[in-house]
Amino acid sequence: MRSRRKSTYQPPPGGFDFTAAMERLCRDVTRRLPELRHIDIDQVLVTVSQSRKPVLHGLYAALTPMKFEDGAETAVYHGQQYGVETVVDENRREMMYLLTFYLPRFMEVDFLEKLVTIFHELWHISPDFNGDLRRHSGRCYAHTHSQKEYDDEMAALARKWLALQPPEMLYQFLKLDFAQMQFAYGEIFGRRIRRPKLLPINPSVNSSKCK
After folding, report:
1. Using DSSP, how many helices (H) and how many strands (E) does the chain show?
2. First to last CA, the chain
3. What's the rounded Cα separation, in Å, for the pair 163 and 16?
4. Separation of alpha carbons 100 and 178, rounded Å
5. Cα(25)–Cα(63) distance, integer angstroms
6. Which ranges of 15-146 would DSSP assign to H, the alpha helix?
7. Of 58, 52, 51, 196, the residue nearest 131 (C-alpha)
8. What is the pLDDT along the chain (211 residues), one digit of tens a residue?
9. Radius of gyration (Cα) for the chain, nearest Å?
């Protein structure tokens, strides 16, 4: 049996729960836009991670798939079979994806770039919602051949969502930088979780036993 880890996040009182706010925004996006309606936000665990350096270059966000190609539970690398450590939320639902935002770096870019980043990561989710990434043709299967074209498409999708007039309260916090958000809300917090491990599967071990 694969190792299972449960998220035990309990938001403290007061301050601003970044992951809860981002979940509400993403839920609205996936309900309003048919292009992303295949996403079940209840099985996408939104997390935060601290930027290691106070610079703008680097990752703003990342999507971690919890399955392999076509939703497979295992894959073989260099002759060894592997599975991914299972992550369940506070309600014991198995997560198909982890969506991580790097703070404060993510909050230091402008409003539209923040939205483009969110849509960029959501677009990576497979149309089959099977725990795998959306795969494009060619070597760079996670993106199209042009990064600019990809970003332009995500910007158009973000503007389409805004044109549908979602409640401003859902995205108002994205118009602030991190210092402004701290000034407005006080403590900024969110769910944190260690990146799931690739676990070697030993065929000689009884599958009914857990490590």
Report:
1. 4, 10
2. 8
3. 27
4. 16
5. 16
6. 18-32, 111-123
7. 196
8. 456 656 666 666 778 999 999 999 999 999 999 999 999 999 999 999 987 655 566 789 999 999 999 989 888 988 899 989 999 988 889 999 999 999 999 999 999 999 999 999 999 999 999 999 998 665 555 555 667 888 899 999 999 999 999 999 999 999 999 999 999 999 999 999 988 888 888 755 444 333 3
9. 18
Distance of CA 52 to the CA centre of its chain: 19
The pTM of the full predicted model, rounded to 2 decimals, is 0.84
Length of the chain, in residues: 211
Report the alpha-carbon distance of residue 134 to residue 167 in Å, rounded: 29
Q: Which amino acid is residue 3, in one-letter code?
A: S
> Residue 97 corresponds to which tokens in the numbers above?
């994806």
